[in-house]
């Protein structure tokens, strides 16, 4: 099977899952006691007729199963309805999903850039002081609640004034030149990235360390050494590549954990991401928005898993298709 | 078994963590005895009172029994700010086992004795007060009762579901397996915290606090079982091909009996490891949910909803004692992680992170 048919197969496997997800989320929300018209009902200036019109517009007068198919058809066409405040859901989601992806990629990037070398150094200096300190630090990093760490960093940002608080851009962002714009976004991304990186860094560096230790113990590395290869060559050419491969599989999980973990961090830093959007939508019982962000979140998660599988296939030829 | 404990206590970190957790659980178990103030205590005049200072030396420089002063709230008309000063006219000595509010010790007999307190008329706030003038220390104890037990309770729901679901899917295989696993995968494909938020948000309002506690537990459990069941299913797939399972089938054992009696017990060491490593996740999920205001609701305390007050800037800048629940969450999660790591290293030496 070629790589292309593998990709096709993985995508086809994702489709039933997406359909089940849509089923779960749709019925969860529609059958819940949340009344999508509650806010309008409470408003005395809204007449009965407007209420009825709104009901028909949302399709609430039809049986639930019909509602599901109407919703599904519209969703495939890219029409996700409107929010409570009248904006188009799709435009709002697009912007927020992009911001969350930006944050996630920046976290994954930094986690790998820092975590892999840390794990390698720890494994090569097995049981040294550095190794011990790293083990302790990674235990601590894994245990800090993300929102608590975020709050502590907010105190720091407030006291030092070094970092902006909230949002992704400065108020006068549109007046900046391109270089300035990038710097401004990086400046705003720094603290949320720091929080999430610290938490996922612990797991990754640990995993890298134990993988490399396993590989260094294997016969082919011993053989390469016995052959008289320089130690640096053994590590870089033989050991490292094989130790990193399992981490590629973890990439999918990491992404899933990030999507979930980012929600609280986004909330504390007032970062305009998908996690905060869904939280705001839930608070306002904005059903269209909740449904859409749930679907897009799941979609991103499944896509992330497929991507990491494909990446693994590319880096590790031993994986069977 | 003895070997297990010997190996466990050889690990200094794990032993220390066990001691810390024991202390935490004993304190929440005896919360009413240790707490200075009852659950519903609040004094609006002491909103955001700082922690009481405890003195061992009199103003004249002599060593005495520990004592403290009461706080008086003052209002600065120029800066429009509230501040607290100590009322130095009256010392209040700390007392061991004084009489306080009445409660049922261990839920059995009524008593008024508490671990510590101050003389009548005095106030002692070890960790200050919150916005409603409630004693932070006492509320940490009551909140711990929720935050530290909810994970265990959720486990009792999610693990049996995961075990049986995975067991059935793995044992029957074929179409059943495919359908069941697609469903589990679909649940895993929804970012768990998103699902958690939505489930918590659709809870009807107007529930009693114990109903709410129960439903939050159920919700936490509903999120956790899917990933676990997938691993169990994988293990069952390989266990069911072993000879002893075939033997059981050939003597006519029922399917339910084979799954429950012969196959699932084989997964026990994985299950123990997975349980200890998943408790911190539940603690974090509950506190995160309550932090957002979707979990345990006021006036009930949980470490997450106590930390909610730390969302305000002025609070984190000027009232750092409001951050204490965060430290406790951190300590509890860290201890569970360290214990879980050690148990895994002992029970499953292959996966040892050396």
Explain how this protein is built.
The complex is a heterodimer of chains A (321) and B (354). By secondary structure, chain A is an all-alpha fold. Chain A contains twelve helices and no strands. Chain A has helices spanning 3-30, 38-42, 48-57, 64-76, 89-124, 129-143, 146-160, 178-216, 219-226, 231-269, 274-283, 287-315. By secondary structure, chain B is α+β, with helices and mostly antiparallel strands. Chain B has 13 helices and six strands. In chain B, the strands form two sheets. A four-stranded antiparallel β-sheet of chain B has the order 1-2-3-6, with no helix packed on it. In chain B, strands 4-5 form a two-stranded antiparallel sheet. In chain B, strand 1 and strand 2 (63-76) form a beta hairpin. The longest helix of chain B has 37 residues, at 136-172. The two termini of chain B are 22 Å apart. The mean pLDDT of chain B is 84. Chains A and B meet through helix 1, helix 6, helix 7, helix 8 and helix 10 of A and helix 5, helix 6, helix 10, helix 12 and helix 13 of B.
What is the fold's blueprint, element by element?
The complex is a heterodimer of chains A (321) and B (354).
Chain A: H1 3-30, H2 38-42, H3 48-57, H4 64-76, H5 89-124, H6 129-143, H7 146-160, H8 178-216, H9 219-226, H10 231-269, H11 274-283, H12 287-315
Chain B: H1 2-10, H2 12-29, H3 31-34, E1 54-57, E2 63-76, E3 81-96, E4 99-105, E5 109-113, E6 116-118, H4 136-172, H5 174-189, H6 192-201, H7 209-239, H8 243-250, H9 255-263, H10 268-291, H11 303-307, H12 313-318, H13 324-347
Antiparallel strand pairs in B: 1-2, 2-3, 3-6, 4-5
Helix pairs in contact in B: 2-4, 2-13, 4-5, 4-7, 4-10, 5-7, 6-7, 8-9, 10-13
């Amino acid at each position: 099977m070629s790589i292309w048919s593998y990709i096709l197969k993985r995508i086809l496997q994702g489709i039933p899952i997406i359909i089940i997800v849509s089923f779960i989320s749709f019925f969860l929300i529609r059958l819940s006691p949340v009344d999508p018209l509650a806010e309008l009902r409470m408003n005395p200036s809204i007449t009965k007729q407007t209420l009825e019109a709104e009901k028909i517009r949302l399709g609430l007068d039809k049986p639930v199963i019909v509602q599901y198919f109407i919703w599904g058809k519209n969703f495939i066409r890219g029409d996700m309805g409107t929010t409570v405040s009248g904006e188009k859901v799709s435009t709002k989601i697009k912007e927020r999903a992009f911001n969350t992806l930006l944050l996630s990629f920046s976290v994954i990037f930094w986690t790998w850039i820092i975590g892999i070398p840390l794990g390698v150094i720890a494994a090569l200096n097995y049981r040294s002081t550095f190794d011990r300190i790293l083990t302790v630090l990674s235990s601590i990093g894994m245990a800090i609640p993300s929102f608590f760490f975020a709050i502590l960093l907010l105190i720091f940002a407030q006291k030092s004034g070094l970092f902006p608080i909230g949002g992704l851009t400065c108020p006068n962002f549109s007046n900046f030149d391109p270089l300035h714009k990038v710097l401004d976004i990086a400046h705003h991304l720094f603290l949320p990235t720091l929080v999430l990186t610290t938490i996922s860094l612990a797991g990754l560096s640990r995993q890298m360390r134990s993988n490399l230790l396993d590989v260094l113990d294997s016969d082919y590395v011993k053989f390469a050494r016995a052959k008289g290869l320089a130690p640096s060559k053994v590590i870089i050419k033989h050991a490292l590549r094989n130790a990193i491969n399992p981490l590629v599989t973890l990439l999918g999980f990491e992404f899933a954990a990030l999507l979930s973990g980012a929600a609280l961090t986004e909330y504390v830093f007032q970062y305009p991401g998908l996690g905060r959007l869904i939280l705001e939508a839930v608070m306002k019982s904005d059903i269209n928005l909740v449904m859409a962000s749930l679907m897009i979140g799941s979609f991103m998660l499944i896509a992330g898993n497929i991507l990491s599988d494909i990446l693994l296939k590319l880096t590790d030829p031993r994986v069977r298709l | 078994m003895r070997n297990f404990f010997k190996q466990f206590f050889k690990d200094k970190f794990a032993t220390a963590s066990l001691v810390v957790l024991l202390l935490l659980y004993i304190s929440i178990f005896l919360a009413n005895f240790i707490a200075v103030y009852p659950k519903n205590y609040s004094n609006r005049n002491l909103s955001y009172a700082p922690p009481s200072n405890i003195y061992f030396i009199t103003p004249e420089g002599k060593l005495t029994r520990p004592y403290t002063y009461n706080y008086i709230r003052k209002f600065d008309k120029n800066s429009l700010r509230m501040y607290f000063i100590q009322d130095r006219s009256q010392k209040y000595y700390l007392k061991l086992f004084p009489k306080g509010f009445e409660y049922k010790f261990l839920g059995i007999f009524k008593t008024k004795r508490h671990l510590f307190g101050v003389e009548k008329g005095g106030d002692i706030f070890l960790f200050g007060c919150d916005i409603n003038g409630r004693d932070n220390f006492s509320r940490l104890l009551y909140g711990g009762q929720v935050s530290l037990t909810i994970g265990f309770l959720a486990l009792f729901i999610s693990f049996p579901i995961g075990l049986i679901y995975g067991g059935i899917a793995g044992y029957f295989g074929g179409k059943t397996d495919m359908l069941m696993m697609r469903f589990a995968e679909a649940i895993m494909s929804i970012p768990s915290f998103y699902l958690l938020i939505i489930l918590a948000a659709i809870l009807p309002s107007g529930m009693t606090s114990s109903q709410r506690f129960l439903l939050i537990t159920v919700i936490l459990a509903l999120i956790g079982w899917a990933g676990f069941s997938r691993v169990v299913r994988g293990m069952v797939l390989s266990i069911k091909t072993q000879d002893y399972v075939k033997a059981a089938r050939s003597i006519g054992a029922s399917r339910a009996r084979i799954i429950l009696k012969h196959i699932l017990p084989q997964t026990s060491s994985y299950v123990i490891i997975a349980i200890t490593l998943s408790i911190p996740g539940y603690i974090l999920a509950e506190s995160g949910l309550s932090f957002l205001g979707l979990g345990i609701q006021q006036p009930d305390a949980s470490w997450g909803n106590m930390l909610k007050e730390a969302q305000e800037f002025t609070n984190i800048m000027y009232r750092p004692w409001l951050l204490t629940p965060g430290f406790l969450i951190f300590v509890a999660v860290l201890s569970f992680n360290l214990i879980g790591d050690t148990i895994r290293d002992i029970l499953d030496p292959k996966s040892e992170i050396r």
